[in-house]
Amino acid sequence: MGDWFKGELIGTGSFGPVYLGIDANTGTLMAVKQVELPTGSTSNEERTKSMISALEREVEVLKTLQHVNIVQYLGKAFACLHCSASDEKFFNVFLEYVPGGSIAKLLHNYGAFEEPLVRNFIGQVLTGLDYLHERGILHCNIRGSNILVGNDGVVKISDFYASKQVKENNGGERTAPRPSFQGSVFWMAPEVAMQKAGAYNCKADIWSIGCLVLEMLTGQHPWAELDQMQAMWKIGSKDKPTFPTDISTNAVDFLNKTLDPDPDNRPSAKELLQHPFTSASR
């Protein structure tokens, strides 16, 4: 990445602050993720090293991706010629700037969405997710705060810090490494929450898709009446979150299919794009 200017704080990502930046040569606006570089060997420094390693893994994933519904990686740098001396202590990752903010922010500002908008947005998310799954990549953290919306209504999947590359086991099944608690509890699939021995697959993202639909329809995350430990117990018990009572039969069917406790019964992203709930938006 070449020379750039640092602008205002526009959000907080999984690793720390996100600033608006501008390329000093092209004028391209960018979202800039910053992680402070480690300077010692304290426990906090070890955590920082771990965060930088995770951010570099995210970069390695993003570098391979080119899709309209996935935020575009632009570069990385350890310096900023037009920034303050304190900014020299940060590792910077440059991403496509999506000015509308996240779905979570829109829900906070405007309240719950009507079904036509939910169908529109979830169809775009599924298109991006199908692209990822076709390439053996699990996102592992689909939720409203990680889906960005452009001024033109185009949505983009972001924040790949928890993503995993799936591998084929001896039976030919494509699975990810052993589950970890990276990701967000309220959107987490039962097989991930239970920390089952072995591995899980792309169907964990499909559960999160159902949770994202609930988030958009209600304006709050699933299990909103519970704290994280209570939600973890409910999810691990293979309970489903409560559905709104005023939604269409197609929406209910979509939620029942995506939130099936048995991952083998959940449709793929490609199959869900043909579901009446999403296909009605095209």
Automatic annotation (TrEMBL):
User: PROSITE patterns given for it?
Assistant: PROTEIN_KINASE_DOM
Domain named Protein kinase: which ranges? 4-278
A molecular function (GO) term: MAP kinase kinase kinase activity
Per the similarity annotation, which family is this? Belongs to the protein kinase superfamily. STE Ser/Thr protein kinase family. MAP kinase kinase kinase subfamily.
UniProtKB keywords: ATP-binding, Kinase, Nucleotide-binding, Serine/threonine-protein kinase, Transferase
Q: Where is the composition biased (Basic and acidic residues)?
A: 259-273
User: Which protein are we looking at?
Assistant: Kinase
Keyword Kinase assigned to the entry: answer is yes
Q: Which organism is it from?
A: Dacryopinax primogenitus (strain DJM 731) (Brown rot fungus)
This protein's record includes keyword Nucleotide-binding: yes
